[in-house]
Design brief:
It contains 15 helices and eleven strands. About 50% of the residues lie in helices and about 15% in strands. It folds into two domains: about 5-220, 3-Layer(aba) Sandwich (Rossmann fold), CATH 3.40.50; about 225-330, Magnesium chelatase subunit I, C-Terminal domain (Helicase, Ruva Protein, domain 3, Orthogonal Bundle), CATH 1.10.8. The strands form four sheets. The chain has a five-stranded parallel beta sheet. Strands 3-4 form a two-stranded antiparallel ribbon.
C-alpha cells in the first residue's frame, strides 16, 4: 500500500518537474501537466496545435527533465516504414562472409517525437502501431524489444489539411491523451520573446531518470479507487456509445462512434497518477472529469447533427459529464 512518505516524495518530484519545464515553456499549464501524467502512466500523447506554439520545444524539454534519450522523426509523404523502424543491412564478417545486421531506426529511443504525424502516408504511420502498443518492433520476422520507458509524443497541425493523411482509428485509440495547445496570451507572448532572446536552447535540468520514472509508475498503480468511481468511469465511457444501454439523447443524436474500453483504462490509470501529483491518497470524481476531455476527445466521432450544429468533441463531452452529474443527483434523491 502507498504510504504518506511515498505520496510526498511523488508529489515533490512532480513539483520539481513542473518547475523545470516552466524554465522552457511559458503557459500551457494544462498541456504540460497532462503530458507529464501520461508519461508517468506510460501512455502516448497526441499534441495538436498550429505551428510555432511550442509543441516540439515541450517534447525536447521533457527529454531533459526526465533525463531520457530523445529522437525526432519528421513525418513527410516520402517517409518509408524502414525510416522509422530500421532495417537489416548487409555487412562482411571477419571471414569475409556476407551477413545481415539489424540497423535500428529512430524509433529505438525512450522519447520519440513524431513531428507532423499526419503528413506521412498510412503505410508509414502504421510503422508506429506495434511500437506504441506492444513496445516491440518486428523486422523480417524478428522481434526487437524497445527499451523502457518508451513514449511516442506526436504532433499534428489541425488547420493545414492539404497533403495530410488522417490517422486511422486504431492508431488514434493508442494515444492515451489528445492535448490541444492554444495560442499564448499577450503577456505570455512577451515572456516567450524575451526568454528566447537570451537563448533558443532548452535550459531545464534533469529531475528524474528512467528508473525513477518507472518506480513512480509502479507507485501510482497502488492508489486505491473506490467501486463507485470505477462504475462512474465505466458508465461515462459507455455513455459515449450510441448503442449502449447507458447512452442518452446526447450520444444517440451527436455521436456516430463511441469510445472503446481502452478509454476506461486510460481514465483510471491517468486518474491515479493525477491524484498522486496532487498529493492525494485516492482518486476523486474530479480526477475522472478533468481527464475525460484528453481521453475521450479523439475517441468519439461526431454524427452529422453535431457537425451541422458546429459542435466540437469537447462540447459533447461537457454535455455527457452534465448528464452524468444529473443522473447522480437523481440516484441520491432516491
Amino acid at each position: 500500500m502507498v504510504n504518506k512518505e511515498d505520496i510526498n516524495l511523488f508529489s515533490g518530484k512532480c513539483e520539481q518537474i513542473f518547475a523545470q519545464i516552466k524554465r522552457d515553456i511559458v503557459g500551457q499549464e494544462d498541456v504540460v501537466e497532462n503530458t507529464v501524467i501520461a508519461m508517468i502512466a506510460g501512455g502516448n500523447v497526441l499534441l495538436e496545435g498550429v505551428p510555432g506554439i511550442g509543441k516540439t520545444r515541450l517534447v525536447r524539454s521533457l527529454g531533459r527533465v526526465f533525463s531520457l534519450p530523445f529522437s525526432r522523426i519528421q513525418f513527410t509523404p516520402d517517409l518509408m516504414p524502414a525510416d522509422v523502424t530500421g532495417t537489416n543491412v548487409m555487412e562482411k564478417d571477419a571471414q569475409g562472409n556476407a551477413v545481415y545486421r539489424f540497423q535500428p531506426g529512430p524509433i529505438f529511443s525512450n522519447i520519440v517525437l513524431a513531428d507532423e504525424i499526419n503528413r506521412a502516408t498510412p503505410k508509414s504511420q502504421s510503422a508506429l502501431l506495434e511500437a506504441m502498443q506492444e513496445h516491440t518492433v518486428t523486422v523480417s520476422g524478428e522481434d526487437h524489444r524497445l527499451e523502457e520507458p518508451f513514449f511516442v509524443l506526436a504532433t499534428q497541425n489541425p488547420i493545414e489539411q492539404e497533403g495530410t493523411y488522417a490517422l486511422p482509428e486504431a492508431q488514434m485509440d493508442r494515444f492515451m491523451f489528445k492535448l490541444t495547445m492554444q495560442y499564448p496570451t499577450v503577456d505570455e507572448m512577451k515572456e516567450i520573446v524575451l526568454m528566447t532572446q537570451k537563448t533558443m536552447d532548452e535550459v531545464s535540468d534533469s529531475v528524474v531518470d528512467g528508473a525513477q520514472l518507472l518506480r513512480m509508475r509502479e507507485t501510482a498503480k497502488e492508489i486505491p479507487v473506490i467501486d463507485d468511481i470505477v462504475m462512474y468511469t465505466m458508465r461515462l465511457v459507455a455513455s459515449t456509445q450510441p448503442g449502449s444501454s447507458e447512452a442518452g439523447d446526447i450520444a444517440k443524436n451527436c455521436i456516430r462512434l463511441g469510445a472503446s474500453p481502452r478509454a476506461a483504462q486510460a481514465l483510471i490509470t491517468g486518474a491515479k497518477v493525477r491524484a498522486m501529483v496532487g498529493g492525494r491518497y485516492n482518486v476523486s470524481y474530479e480526477d475522472i472529469d478533468a481527464l475525460a476531455y484528453p481521453v475521450l476527445r479523439h475517441r468519439i466521432k461526431l454524427g452529422y447533427e453535431a457537425l451541422a450544429d458546429r459542435m466540437t468533441s469537447d462540447d459533447v463531452i461537457t454535455q455527457l459529464l452534465r448528464a452524468m452529474k444529473s443522473g447522480q443527483k437523481k440516484e441520491k434523491k432516491r
